[in-house]
Sequence to fold (484 residues):
Amino acid sequence: MMIKPLDQAVGSIEAMKAVFARDMKVAFRQRQDLLNPLLFFMMVVTLFPLGVSPEISFLQEAGAGILWVAALLSVLLSLDHLFRHDFDDGTLEQLVLQPQPLFLLVLAKTMAHWVLTGLPLVLLTPVLGVMVHLDGNSIAILCLTLLIGTPVLSLIGAIGAALTLGLRSAGVLLSLLIIPLYIPVLIFGTGTVAAAAEGAPVGAYLALLGAFLVLALTLAPFASAAALKVSLSNS
Amino acid sequence: MWQFFHKLGSPKWFYGIAARLMPWLLVLGLLCLGAGLVWGLAFAPKDYLQGNSYRIIFIHVPSAFLAQSVYIMMASAAVVTLVWRMKLADVFVKAAAPVGLVLTFISLFTGAVWGKPTWGTWWIWDARLTSMLILLFLYGGVIALDRAINDEKSAARAVAILVLVGVVNIPIIKYSVDWWNTLHQPATFKLTEKPSMPAEMWVPLLLSVIGLYLVFGWLACLRMQTEILIREQRTRWVQDLFHVNGGAR
Fold:
């Protein structure tokens, strides 16, 4: 742990940086965990041409939706790790005991989660976009929507991960709780690409996605922190 | 004022009040609901466009109306749980969630039955239908989370957080699916406007909405009483109530 003892006054920002850096370091020591969501993302996308149709016209129309759903599912899959290891080895209790507000530390952890899962998905999207025959403009817009949208997925997902911490069958329960809350992000994410494909202006869509991000940034960490405290008192 | 507040938190006090309130809720509720349904289903005029098939509105609208307001009630109770740690609020959330789920299901089901003759299909991925379906998922999530946590206090607070997160999301979900796709007719009742249908139609509809509210009140009281008895089964007053431990009959 890089968090200093109580008697040394540590600013909230410093503590956030420490938590973020620690999460990155831990993640890079378990590289396979970083790769898994990406592999899952690619596999889900592969299922659609195989399962529905490899026709170029179908893939062009459905491609953005397929990539968004696949990204959503792989974020969902990775959420279980967000607090689990820290919960098991007791680090989470130490975080709760820190003098800094817990929601800021949770925000730092969530940001680390996004950098480790959401961002790689965005970076991988152009490759998969070409494979589902999206044109260059659509791919650019799709990457932009994923760039704004995946942090929202991480932030909302953190609430679910915190609520289901330490429960039996937490994985399935987590999906049940979180998928309904992901729907607006999905609608506007794919809506943006569809609008762009028709040549309509996408500014309003992007602004709304940005509004979701701001709302999630301001509210979700409080809910996650409250849920974490409940889950820790439960164990 | 504070004494009242304190009393409100006492399960025993609530148990007694509910017992006195319930017959009234049930009788009045069944009267309103019965009058509204009989009037609506048998005597209200035919719709000039949809014929008799529109009559399912007298079941569809009340259940859809209540499905949404039960969630709002649960959210208010969730705030009370988180802020004041009042046991009864949590008992209410637990008692109301399955009722809300069933009401949401009824409104979706009657909507499908109504959709077949009017739109020619059971289901359409329309905004209103989709947002009700999502409401069904939200209710399902609340119930699943409540069942998954064994400790009563943790379950209460976790469920309260989830209900509140859901209630922040409900308007967002609603507007996003509205934006996405819409076919459903606009809301039947608006507080600010005069209904657009004749009085012979909206009066029975209003009666059945009020009736269903009262019946829900009765059902919620009944389920809360049961939950209170389960939770307080070791306390003196519950055992006295059932003459356990050699209590005099």
The longest helix of chain B spans residues 11-43. The mean pLDDT of chain B is 83. The helical segments of chain B are 2-8, 11-43, 57-84, 87-119, 127-148, 152-180, 199-231, 236-241.
